[in-house]
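Exercise 7 asks you to align residues with tokens for two separate proteins.
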Amino acid sequence: MKKQFLPYYISRALLSVAFAMLVAGFTWKMIALAIVLFGFFLLYLHSGWFKIDTNNAVFPLRRDSRAQLIQRKALIIAIFVGLITYFLLPFISGLWGLTAFSGSTAFALAIIAYFISQFIFLSRA
């Protein structure tokens, strides 16, 4: 860990803990989720996938044109996955006699698809 990124580390640790508490409450799962989220923030900073602007201590990551194109592709994939899930889940759950909330499930799968596809595209370079 570099001292010049200390404000980034502190802000992302607080953000990770706040989000984990929102999702999991104040349990042991919250601690595990916060550690995983903070690890992803560290990965993004130290991976070399983004330009680093040392003049802005809290928001040092900058996207170049390659990263913007990857973000666009990931967003298209997420929208596609979300729409397909939203429209097909009622039919699939009706076939098996299950109850499913297609809106929240589609939204969650779209978010997961966005981050997984962005991670795969960024790690290929």
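Second protein for Exercise 7:
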Amino acid sequence: MNFFQKKTSWSNIELGLLKVCVGSIYLIVGVCFHEFLRNYLSIFGIIFVFTSIWVFYLWLKRMGTENK
């Protein structure tokens, strides 16, 4: 299965729509299960911090390689 090996190109509007789609399902899940998810808030916070740092690093790395 070569699904994850195919290269695609997305425009900014398409990526924006994808983010709105994913964000809306996060909000729906958060509203429906807020009491249950409150117990895992620290885990979600840790995941957010690590993935934010990782994405920021990848962004800086990509910005550095595009200028060469």
